[in-house]
Amino acid sequence: MLEGYAGRLFWKLLLALWASMLLSIVVAVAYLRSVELAAAPASMALTPPPSVPLLPLLPLAPVITGMVAMFAAGVGVAWYLAVPLRQLRRGLAQVAEGRFDVRVRPALGRRRDELAELADDFDRMAAQLQQLARSRQELLHDISHEMRSPLARMQAAIGLLRQDATQAAAMIDRIERESERMDALVEELLTLHRLEAAPESWAEGTVDVLDLLHAVAEDAGFEARAAGRELRIDAPGEFVARVRGELLHRAFENVVRNAVKYTAAGTAVEIQARVDGGELVVTVADRGPGVPEHARTLMFQPFTRLEGASSVRGIGLGLAIAQRALQLNGGSIEAGARPGGGLVMTLRLRAT
Ligand SMILES: Nc1ncnc2c1ncn2[C@@H]1O[C@H](COP(=O)(O)OP(=O)(O)OP(=O)(O)O)[C@@H](O)[C@H]1O
Ligand SMILES: [Mg+2]
Known about the structure:
Layout: H1 8-39, H2 61-96, H3 114-163, H4 168-197, E1 205-208, H5 209-226, E2 230-234, E3 240-243, H6 245-262, E4 268-276, E5 279-285, H7 318-328, E6 332-337, E7 343-350
Parallel strand pairs: 2-4
Antiparallel strand pairs: 1-3, 4-5, 5-7, 6-7
Bound molecules: adenosine-5'-triphosphate and magnesium ion.
Adenosine-5'-triphosphate (ATP) binds at residues 188, 254, 258-259, 262, 286, 288-289, 291, 299, 304-306, 309, 314-320, 343.
């Protein structure tokens, strides 16, 4: 019945208090018994009464023993509780000051009870906050870096334009491209922020997800052919589900566009979709450079651009958005190696 409520700490405290009370009772009973024996007529006593009765000289013995036992138990319990609570308090004060590298558990030594568990939870929370603070820091750094490059190129173009008016058309083109790039960056950042801060703001509706996929494939196929690549899709039937359609569209779009961007010239991107036990599984496979195993989780972090990506346009936010978009729809996305070379992205979605 007590399971889940009473842990080690509960039993330790209960035992300490109970043992000190037991000790007091034992001493009191022993005292009363000795008084009784001392008062009994000599004929009834088995042994003759002691010539100097010791215990009757100490009538306060049970009271004193009880007080000492309770005091010792009280000190022990108070110490046992106060030390870790002080550590936790100190830890909380440091976290409140923004110092997330504080850890409490090592100061508690080898104890294993509810307070030690609380310290573990505290440490986990501090580690999580530390990670969040670090990624926010990195994100800010990445954003400023990403903003600075197009701005620097725009300023250079304006400088050239001032010096040499004959290059006006080329420089205006350059400025236009850079401002488009900044616009795309801001747009993706806002999407990412909205996904995290207000996920409920994306409208939900009943959609045939395979229709979405076909629409994305049609657009991307057009681009692929213009760039000397092929795009094939094999996604029969329908998969009607209640989803945030706009988000799913973005997720498919980014994954398919990535495949088209990275697949080698003259090769084909292959999209397959199957419904398997109430789950839609979409794979997008290309014949590009692929992604080494250690980077297949990293690539979903904002602003991650892997080695070799510098020759291909991109900001590094698409997959971060795609992953959050799928998670918000109760699905998942993962990257794997394609036999024969290239990358295969697997997107899963459950019917709701
Ligand atoms: N199909 C792929 N083949 C090889 N590498 C890939 C592939 N898809 C993604 N990547 C790697 O993962 C990184 C992150 O992809 P992501 O879609 O988030 O960013 P991006 O395409 O560079 O920019 P964005 O999508 O924001 O315009 C890419 O920069 C690239 O290094
Ligand atoms: Mg992308």
